[in-house]
Amino acid sequence: MTTTRTTHFSPSQTTCGSLLLELQKIWDEIGESESERDKMLLQLEQECLDIYRRKVEKTKKYRADLRQTLNEAEIEVSNLASTLDEQANFVQEKKGTLNEQLTTIIPVLDGLRMKKQERIKEFSETQSQIVRICAEIAGNIQSMNSVNAQVNERDLTMEKLGGLKSYLQELQSEKILRLQKVNSYVKTVHELSAVMSIDFVETINEVHPTLVDPAHGQIKSISNDTLARLTGLIHSLNEEKLQRLQKLQDLGGTLIELWNLLDTSVDEQKQFEHATCLISSSLDEVVRHGCLALDVIEKTEVEVERLKVLKGSKMKELVLKRQHELEEIYRGVHMDLDTDAARQTLVSHIDSGNVDLSDLLSGIDDQIVKAKELALSRKDILDKVEKWKYASDEENWLDDYEKDENRYSAGRGAHKNLKRAEKARILVSKIPSIVENLTAKVKAWEIEKEMSFLYDKVPLLQTLEEYLMLRQEREEDKRRSREQKRLQEQFATEQEALFGSKATTKKPLGQSSNANTLAGTPVGRRVQTPSARPGVSGSKERRDSGKGGTTIPLNYVALPKG
Q1: Measuring CA to CA, which residue among 401, 381, 532 is closest to residue 466?
Q2: For residues 226 and 207, is the Cβ–Cβ distance under 8 A?
Q3: Cβ neighbours of residue 507 closer than 8 Å, sequence gap 6 or more
Q4: Which end of the chain is more exposed for a tag (fewer CB within 10 A), N or C?
């Protein structure tokens, strides 16, 4: 039996067999019974089985632990791969021993764990920046440092990280735009404060202290509240600027009016040039520092009040000066105005004290404006009147010139008179059309203005009609004069035929028979124009003058030539 058992030991159990042989020898020497020997051997076998069993159990437990570790590693790898959205370099097929599988998966797991920590760190930094910028936009600058961003470790995919980074980029762009807007608003507030001499630091501090000089590590406020308050501040400053500008422009306009009224010297005007130069400026054009300061406006107000007081003391003089200006306008365009009566009435009103001189002056200014408008409407007609007057004067000169018997003599200036006569004939030929156009213009003006066109207190149409009548009478006088001259020449020819020739005295060369002619330039009677008003007596004189000179005998009868 013992031999049978010993034969089952493997070569590695040789030591146990030798020990068993040695034990048998000892039993033999001792004389142990077979039953005792079997009992002891059975006990030894049981003890060996217990040892093997414990070893097997321990090994089983180790194997289970390995399997559990491997399984947990596989699960963690799978979870990490899912969380990180990574494709793990691990094949889950059961290949190799457990230790080999663990050796394969552990590096993969360590790599994923490290990547997870890096991803968590990246998520944390990104979310922290997002939280910080959101806090800046919301205006929670004090609490933004104490806020810790919570990272969801179950979703650490690159897609989510990319979304967070994209959102962060949008927030950073928004922050840059807000910062630019804040800086622009602060610059605008500074410019407006400089124009109106307002304390910039105190004004901007009321919006937010960080806008002036941010403390160490403190961020300039870009919150919605700050932007809204800056917008409101700029609006109120612009309103204040507009009010001050309008006030200064009104004061500047009043200054100019008072300067013109009081003939203020240029040196005095230069002292307030800063106020008058802004009269036509728009709101955006006013950028000079201190030009809208309160002290500037106050000084201008004081000057305006001073000039108003001075104006009150010189009001009578100013009223008379304006009246003179009105008279000059009327006189310049030959309009009817009884200046003496108007001035006397004006003085009586001033002396009575019952009239507000400012209202009186304003009324005269209104009259001046209307007079200028009326004078402008008369300009075209007056220009044509001047042309007609010149043509009429040339016509009168030409008539006297053609009556001069010595006009072709070689006297001094004769060639100039010949040229003038040539030009005068061309101009005289245009007189009918000039008068016709002038009459049409005057009639159209009277229809438009619904009033008579007066020229030196006389209706111009009446003057034109009288001129045409006188011109017609003069043409008739010319015709009668030519006829009388022809009859005289015929009478003289017949007398010579009956009684012989009669000696005549020759006149010196170049001497005119007209006593009113000097150097061949005649100055005789003329058809009167608006510069010298014609009347009925003028027409009578014209008719009487046609009867002067050599007369034909009353009993003269023209004899037929034989």
Answers
A1: 532
A2: yes
A3: 406, 513
A4: C
